[in-house]
Amino acid sequence: MAKLKGLAWLVTAILVGVVAAYGLPYFARHVPWSIEQRAARLLGGAGAGERVCATRPEAAALFKKIVARIYPIYPDDHTFPVTVEPVEGSTVNAFASLGGHIYVFDGLIKQAETAEELAGVLAHEIEHVRQRHIIQGVIVRLVTVEGLKLALSGGGAINPETASALLNLQFSREQEREADEGGLRRLQDARVDVAGFQHFFERAKNMSSVPAILSDHPDNDDRAQLAQRYRDHPIEPIMDKKDWELVKKICVKADNQPGRRR
Questions:
Q1: What angle do CA 157, 159, 24 make, to 5 degrees?
Q2: Which residues contact 230 (CB under 8 A, 6 or more apart)?
Q3: What is the pLDDT of residues 22-38, one digit of tens each?
Q4: ∠ CA(159), CA(162), CA(166), 5° rounding?
Q5: Cis ω before 72 (30° cut-off from 0)
Q6: What CA–CA distance (Å, rounded) separates 182 from 14?
Q7: Which distant-in-sequence residues (6+ apart) come within 8 Å of 189 by Cβ?
Q8: Count of CA atoms in the C-beta half-sphere (13 A) of 174
Q9: 3-state class (DSSP) for residue 101
Q10: What is the pLDDT averaged over residues 26-54?
Q11: Any idea where the domains of the chain sit in the sequence?
């Protein structure tokens, strides 16, 4: 009898997990933005472990100019406000986290060859926020993996390891493609050359070691084909080469610690 009860609980847990995995992403899209911001504070801050760069004023102003070119541009962009900040670290990466926080490592800024390349990466991360991918991942993980851990351990609070896992989610291939498509559309509507997006990822795959930003992203050939669909539109340069060189020096001092991967 005890074995049957145990089996019943196991089957129930599996069914709940399946329903959660497929139903919660839809539910997550309707979670109020204020709830997501509160969750970010509860989990100890979106950028825990990263240090925002001390910046040169002129370079910081130009960095904001790049962001302003692609956000906000749609009426509903203000519904999910984002902040974009450069952080110390040589890793070639950028990531979006709970509450609309987007962080770009100094290593990625230095690796990018033009403002359009950086804008392409940022547009992708903005779409992760706008399409509610982060809160989707957090809810699914809380209800399935982390929820099961809490139930089995008898604990009632989120420990630091769990919080770290929730802030370090890996997106699915489908979510990455959605962010690519939304980001490319954003670049197109902002009259930014999408070739920057394409060139950055083409160069990244040829680096001696695979950068963190490519670790869980779609195949670059697929990404290049997708970008090609958005190439035929009017474009306006974001800034000249001289200003871009100033942006690349935005961090007064950057350490060599590897950053969190996204």
A1: 70
A2: 184, 185, 187, 188, 194
A3: 566 677 777 888 888 88
A4: 135
A5: yes
A6: 33
A7: 73, 74
A8: 4
A9: strand
A10: 76
A11: 2-247
